[in-house]
Amino acid sequence: MKNIIKNTQSLLKFGYQKSNLLYQAIKYKLNLTSPYILPREYYISEKILEKEHKNLFEKYWIFAGLTHEIKENKSWVRKKIGHREILLVHEDGKYFALENVCPHKNMQLCKESKGKGTFVCDYHAWSFNCDGSVKTIPFHDRSYKFNKKQQNFSNMSKFQVVAVGAFIFVKIKKSNITIQNQFDPAIIKSLKLMSKMLQDQYGTFFEVRDFNWKLNFENLRDSLHPPVLHSKTLGKEVDFSAQYEDVPKIYKLLGRISLKYASSFTKDGDNIKGKKGHLDEIIKPSFSNGYYNWLLFPNFHMATPDGGRSYSIEVHNPVGPDKNEISHYVIVNKANDPDDVFMDEIIEHRLRGLRPVLDEDYEACERVQKAIKFTNREQNVGCYEHYNINIAKMYKKILNKYFF
């Protein structure tokens, strides 16, 4: 127990201090004024969405799931990245990411959300191993008569996969972008340290909301909205530190915005003393006071509102300019006894506490999305939004293939 608490404290201290410094630096790197974050077409255009799928979601490392979901050997779970369905598979300590398509007739291979064992297509009974290699093709010698090249082409499509602790990332297309290129060492270290502290149990749910996925992440980088929008929910438990700082000198040290600094690990507020959180009555006391946020570019957000006792994750997958699929997870710390009979209750409490906060954010995003469709106005943002503005500039370069 002492080691868990010690490691968690070092995780929060190391990750926050280092990445926050970089966060502050990059936030003020470019111009100090800008009329908007992105032009309105970037939130409503089908062409922009297709560019996002092609040049962003298929070329960069995207969070696909937790190792918790495929803990058993030969287990698999169905996921989605952009338009593509993938199967995350675990076999003998190795992880695979396969396209959920049978290479024979390009039929969807698995209809179930999860399962265990090798894959068999219910169209012509082709079967595949956990690594995607073809296992058997019925009547091959009599009917198909594939040569060696065709035999190799009969394997399932496989994508690059990296497990950073319990966090699985997938990259669809080959590129020179490594996980170390995309994320700062402080963030990678924090994910690995945290993974050692997590319970096996987790809660999850899925939803579809009517707003462009980028609006949510602009909202999460907006330090002024929590005291207002969340005044009746999270604002009663956390004293959010709005960022009014003057431009720090350190921003001059950076020559240009870098991909890894588009992600951040920051402390955004302190737990209000004397206020009981959603879990305080059934969970052990917090060992580190504060509200911490992980924002991993482009579409991953994780937060702990209670200093590391519990974590919530949201992952946004755009399926339309004004529609995105959102996967949610809740996980808790091993500092709570793994045999605790209240573990399911702890997760359920966290899920119930999360819902109203998410609704406040998502309803705000949906109202912005509705207005974007009928107004000709662009946004009128101020100095404190520089981090969003800089991320948007990098994002546009990625879409136009000028970045990496």
TrEMBL record:
Q: Mind listing the GO molecular function terms for this protein?
A: 2 iron, 2 sulfur cluster binding; iron ion binding; oxidoreductase activity
| Name of one Pfam family that matches | Rieske
Residue ranges occupied by any Rieske domain in the UniProt entry: 62-170
Question: Which key words tag this protein in UniProt?
Answer: 2Fe-2S, Iron, Iron-sulfur, Metal-binding, Oxidoreductase
The record, for CDD domains, names: RHO_alpha_C, Rieske_RO_Alpha_N
Q: Say yes or no: keyword Chloroplast present.
A: no
Cite the InterPro entries for this sequence: Rieske_2Fe-2S (IPR017941), Rieske_2Fe-2S_sf (IPR036922), Ring_hydroxy_dOase_asu_C_dom (IPR015879), Rng_hydr_dOase-A (IPR001663)
Provide the family line: Belongs to the bacterial ring-hydroxylating dioxygenase alpha subunit family.
Q: What is the designated name of this protein?
A: Rieske domain-containing protein
Look up and give the organism this protein is from. Answer: Methylophilales bacterium MBRS-H7
Q: What is the lineage of its organism?
A: Bacteria, Pseudomonadati, Pseudomonadota, Betaproteobacteria, Nitrosomonadales
